[in-house]
Structure of Cold-inducible protein YdjO:
Amino acid sequence: MSYYNKRNQEPLPKEDVSTWECTKEDCIGWSRKNFAGSDTPTCPLCGSKMIDGVRSLVNLQNNSQTASS
């Protein structure tokens, strides 16, 4: 019988991902752009304006968005 061990998995590669970052200095809110619902969202934590940003993250695909061709 074999057992599954998470520690034997290779770490997922990280890449620069476009994000929305909260502008409020003491707020840690952010969101991946491909998961945000609107063009210029407000912070889900404090309601402040969000600006463009980039983070080094594991890339995730948002399958709920419809592809426009």
